[in-house]
Give the backbone structure.
Amino acid sequence: MGGPEGRGQGGGRGGGGAWGSLRPAVPGWGWRGPGPRVTPTLLVSTDGIHSVVALCTLRVTIITDDMLTNSITVRLENMSQEKFLSPLLSLFVEGVATVLSTTKDDVFVFNIQNDTDVSSNILNVTFSALLPGGVRDKFFPSEDLQEQIYLNRTLLTAVSAQRVLPFDDNICLREPCENYMKCVSVLKFDSSAPFISSTTVLFRPIHPINGLRCRCPPGFTGDSCETEIDLCYSSPCGTHGRCRSREGGYTCECLQDFTGEHCEVNSRSGRCANGVCKNGGTCVNLLIGGFHCVCPPGEFERPYCEVTTRSFPPRSFVTFRGLRQRFHFTVSLAFATQERNALLLYNGRFNEKHDFIALEIVGEQVQLTFSAGEATTTVTPQVPGGVSDGRWHSVQVQYYNKPNIGRLGLPHGPSGEKVAVVTVDDCDTAVAVRFGGLVGNYSCAAQGTQSGSKKSLDLTGPLLLGGVPNLPEDFPVHNRQFVGCMRNLSVDGKNVDMASFIANNGTRAGCDAQRNFCDRTWCQNGGTCVSRWNTYVCECPLRFGGKNCEQVMPHPQRFSGESVVSWSDLDITISVPWYLGLMFRTRKEDGVLMAATAGMASRLRLQILNNHVQFEVSHGPSDVASMRLSRSRVTDGEWHHLLIELKSAKEGKDIKYLAVMTLDYGMDQDTVQIGNQLPGLKMRSIVVGGVSEDKVSVHRGFRGCIQGVRMGETSTNIATLNMNDALKVRVKDGCDVEDPCSSSPCPPHSRCRDAWDAYSCICDKGHFGRKCVDVCHLNPCEHVSACVHSPSSPRGYVCECGSSHYGQYCENKIDLPCPKGWWGNPVCGPCHCAVGKGFDPDCNKTNGQCQCKENYYRPPDQDACLPCDCFPHGSHSRACDMDTGQCVCKSGVIGRQCNRCDNPFAEVTMLGCEVIYNGCPRAFEAGIWWPQTKFGQPAAVQCPKGSTGNAVRHCSGEKGWLPPDLFNCTTVSFVELKAMNEKLSRNETQMDGERSLWLARALRNATQHAGALFGNDVRTAYQLLGRVLLHESGQQGFELAATRDAHFHEDVVRTGSALLAPDTQAAWEQIQRGEAGAVQLLKRFEAYFGNVARNVRRTYLRPFVVVTANMILAVDVFDTFNFTGARVPRFEDVRDEFPKELESSVFFSADFFRPPDRKEGPTVRPAGRKAAPQTAPLGPGTEREAPFRRRKRHPDEPGRFAVALVIIYRTLGQLLPEHYDPDRRSLRLPNRPVINTPVVSAVVYSEGAPLPSPLERPVLVEHTLLETEERTKPVCVFWNHSITIGGTGGWSAKGCELLSRNRTHVICQCSHTTSFAVLMDVSRREHGEVLPLKIVTYAAVSLSLTALLVAFVLLTLVRTLRSNLHGIHRNLIGALFFSQLVFVIGITQTGNPFLCTVIAIVLHYVYMSTFAWTFVESLHVYHMLTEVRNIDAGPMRFYYVVGWGIPAIITGLAVGLDPQGYGNPDFCWLSLRDTLIWSFAGPIGTVIIVNTVIFVLSAKVACQRKHHYYERKGVVSLLRTAFLLLLLTSATWLLGLLAVNSDALTFHYLFAVFSCLQGLFVLLFHCVLNREVRKHLKGVLAGKKLHPDDSATTRATLLTRSLNCNHTYSEEPNMFRTALGESTASLDSTIRDEGGQKLSVSSGPARGGHGEPDSSFVPRSTKKPHGHDSDSDSELSLDEQSSSYASSRSSDSEDDGVEAEDKWDSARGPVHSTPKADTAANHIPAGWPNESLAGSDSEEPGDKPRLKVETKVSVELHLDEQGNHCSECPPDQESGGPPRPAGVPPNPPPEQRKGILKNKVTYPPPLTEKSLKSRLREKLAECEQSPAPSRSSSLGSSDGARAPDGAITVKSPRREPGREHLNGVAMNVRAGSAQGAGSDSEGSNETSI
């Protein structure tokens, strides 16, 4: 495959011929070598009349691997394939042949291809060429071919008529090879390409594949080429030379009289050898032995005819082979020039980009600039006086990758830190670099360091001396030429023959400007000749001057700076020509030599300004002409001659006047136009030595000597100015100065040299700097070597090296037989030392033991070495103790690193610690030395090295230095990017595709190689990256930058990874105070990669994965018709190393892309949407067969493929702002939320129908937890950009839910694709979920629950205790039991949000119910104390409403108002941080306050009734118990709230203890210590059937039955009252069932208050509406049974009381037994007897005990539907009292009141005890004999109040009796034996707890 060539001849049009190539060679053609096979063919075509003849030449070239390896590709601008083939192909070949000095047939063009990587029209042409001379199969090496074409591009352009562009960088630019391997770009064969045709040529190229090959170059070894071998080990230079190792080889420095490659040729005794004489010299053997070289004419130097010196005229340069060393080299040369700025040396790449090294003179100082492709580093040593003085100066450049050298080894692979050291003249490099700043004024050597990922300095271009080609490219240099001479060029110690150049552009051998000009010169009058740059100078004695000291220079005068010589009133007219001259010598930088005035306004001034002479002519403030000789410094103390010439010159018809200033007879000269005013004017005054208006005072006076002042029409006229006429002020004749060395101004170890009006101190050998410091005190020797003074050595000292090192500073190591990283003898093996752990890669050569790197230490208990990091100012050396790492500190300095003082306000100095009292000390932090700063003041200094801007640090009077603020610093690599960002923000430039590519590449380079990023760097980079992503988000198809640069995505991801590094969090936080920050970057990433997903298929991008430290980008393509599920990314296929924290992925199920199932039935099409075409209705089996049919579709059918793109951000979750969805229904926010997983962004694009939103089938996201300890309660969230909080979005959980979790991973499923993460809580428990806490909690709560359950069972088991109070206790116990049970079981059920919400609501309800029942108990006890009636019996509906209903209402309202407040990811209850807590704390606080008030009021009531002590004793105890239980319950649930809302374990333990106390308290005080419960429990366990209240209940029952017998009315619902005492008792009789009658005790809500008294008992109207009584006192329903709370017993013996009551009527049996059947309802007749049943409150001594009614008895008589057998009894039959007089009207009924304020009754006169007992017995007997329907009686209990009289109250119910409330009687009877009248004895009944 090559190029075609064809021409047509004859009468027809020329046919196209093919110039092709075949591979392999065709057998039989007999080709040997790469030469083309040319076959001319004559083609004739005729139709019988006309004929066409064409000559077709077929040229076939065999393309071999050797041709491909040695080929290059040139780039032609504005060229197409057709245009190149016809007719430029032949011109191009001719041009290449001309450049290479070879034939056209030896140039092989085999590929022509358009450059697709750029937008312009560029053609790539690939070719190779044979070497000239007819050598078969020897091609130009590709590197030499590139150099030749590069240097002769201008010639090639002229010959070929095509513009050749610089070479493009190849694939090796990115350094794909590891360690010391060398990357070689190679071309490999690919498939053949189609033909390319033009009008005359048919060409078939080959399209080779660009590849690379990594090979280990000579001088390196190891499995991965990680070890450099010292090739001098085998002593190749023998005994006559010294071997110096260099990269890839060695150099032999031969001894005198020896030469040759290995110093094997002796010029004195040996014979001529081939190549010993250079540059065409002839070797001649001598008869006496030896030989000599006869050199050709020219500047060739003996003994071997080499050229060491070249001179460089303007715009000239010479080209040598480029520096091929990539890791370390040394270049030295000498130069002489007078140019202030010049280019000495340049070596770069062919396109002037990336890697380069440039050695220049900038401002008379040597400057080195180098770059390894990333940053640019400048190294500038300083030499006093500069180097532009025309004298010879030497410079040495030493470049190397900073080695990681241990005690025994060499570098193990290259490092990213590159060092360049520049030394000028005779300078001690080590002292200048290491101690130059310390000794002062010793900076003749400097060092620069450059860090980055690039390891090698890859210089592919040639080495240029003295200039660069005149090409349009922009070389990275300040100057493009050098005028002067260079000599002694040496590379790695090998002298370069200056005649062995590749190309020469105007330079000449030798240096004419530096020849000895004094050979033929004679200085007169005793002058001395000195050779200078391109001339000579005669140093004349005083009073003589001129070029050869031939002129007399009279009147030498000494000026002190205050001296002046002046002439006035001169009669001198300025004419043309006119001369003004003088000689002077000075060392002062500024001063006026002469000032003159002419005419009215013209002034002349000759002055020294900044070491240079300046002449100025002014005719007014605005008309000034001046010139300055800037090349020559005149303040060197030498005599200088200055001559000003005023002359005229013609310019056309005009005449212009010029001033010419000449220094030292032509060594420097300049001209300026001065106008035409000066000629013809008269000089008015002349002042020499300064400016003086009054001829006395002097301004800008001159200090030095002046002689030969002259003025006139000739340059030698000395008579015009007569010194005798001058006014002299403080001027001394002559030029004598005092000896400055007489006062011994120099420091010790130095000598003073008189330098005329100045002195210089010359240090003795071994002493350096301004103070001549002893070098051995500094110790420049390395590797713990000793510095010893040696006067005979060149520098006055030597370093005594150990046995393993050598060199001037012992910097080189003597290698043992094994190379670095190997050990053993005689066979070497690898060391296997862990370099990453701080070990030296080299080991002990004898035993192979690994050892730490230099300045590292190894603690005894660790397997790694740590750096010493000794602080230089505070330590004596960089070394530290090998075991402890303690540096050797100076006096007063402490710390392992010797970097601090005891006092925080003391600073570490070279002398130790010094305390600063008025501010913060000088300190080193963040790479900056912070100066001493006063308290309360900030310190602003320049940013660290390598950055621009100012850093700020505040000095606090309390804390000292605060942390530094480096946000405003900008790394040097970001300066250009920052400027570009500002231009884009101001719309000064626009974003386009090329700029996107450039910015992405530049951002990657800047972020990867800048080290730690400053805040400004992060802001600039993220804004630029956002602009790039925003622009690319709007591109489609092949307009995307990723289609033009395969590394674009890698650049973007690596830039993002660097920006999202953990150490940038502080910068992001500061950025996000004023802008979107990380949120905007995330949004840009999502938008761009969403666009990429849509364009993956159309741009033919293949699936790929980009792995970085903080980000992973994965793109995959799915076949949706055969999709079986996939995970993205597939980490098992990722070969790159990646952090385990990034191992998160997104899983798509097998049915993810399957369309949703279509349900049969009618469907509704949305309005505005066209119906899809349907071929046929779907049948029953259609849906099942659809997938099968889809798989049969054509692979290219649209909709077949889908693209999934996943981005994983390791640290983005910590950088995003802490904003959360305010809608708690979508996000249950923990107390301390933290993102504990990488952020995973997913994008899915389907080519077919768009995926529904939300997704029909969710995606599964598997997250890796960043922290596995102290992280709880995971919540799956995503970043919702639409949330308005903060304006940037926030975390939300809508559509995401937790699927599973283990210790290291969390799996979420979400119904949408966006950026996902997992929100968790930081659980900082003291010891986590410790086992002792669980044991204590569960044990304590279990014990409490058991106690509560036992108490509830006991109160339920004793069925005879049926009082309201015990019912309240049972409900309270139930609420406590369920609250503790739900709490301990459900408080941590946060996994299921719904269940957690339900548990929280239930807890809210049961807790409030608990406190509500404590309120009910307190209220009930208070009523028992304050009510005169019994309130401990009857229905409890009001209590149930308060205890269970009101909490339910409050809870329901709270749920309705804020259902999201229940439960959170921490616990299933209310949070103290939520306002909903007040729906719990408010009511409970109210209950506590009200209960406290009730307790105070109850205590007050109890204390006011001291005479009823025994009756109220039990109630007061009950009150105290209730209040204590309230306090205990309040404390328990307060601790519960604190336990779940706090991390302290103390609250958990206290809650467990108080919960246990709660249950035990209830069991103890309500059951165990309650005598009534104990007594009834004993009866139950003994099998006894007890009445609810032994004797009292029995007697009350008997009383009720006798009072009710045969005294009822069948229909009228009247109730009558009769007073029996101070308190009332109600006995209700209700029908329980149809079969029998049962005695039960009614319990109702407590009522309080007093009604107004009734004066008489009058039947109440039955026509009054019977409304529902919400506070009925003693109405008993069928299901309400309770026992009396107050039990009547004897305090001496409970058993005695029971026995007495049982023996009351032995004939009838136990009268307390419940009757099996009862008569009909009995009522007291309407006419109640007027007389009373009076009885004594006590019995006389000796009387038998008898029934005694002590309390009020309330008897309620209810009408029975079935009548009453006792209804016919006369009204007053039993009463014995007289009837009521007729005509006396009944008292009007009192006002009826509701609730506890019901009307009180007045009582009739009390009944006597005797008549009462008689009445009871009689009525009981009558009632037992009469049949009655089944009923039951209800007995109330006494409230404990004792009265001397009994009272029976008959009352009419306020509502009609139903089935549940029929006729009955209720009665409360207090019985006991009389001990004394009105006395409170132990025998009386009392209420006990």
Notes: The chain has 25 helices and 98 strands.
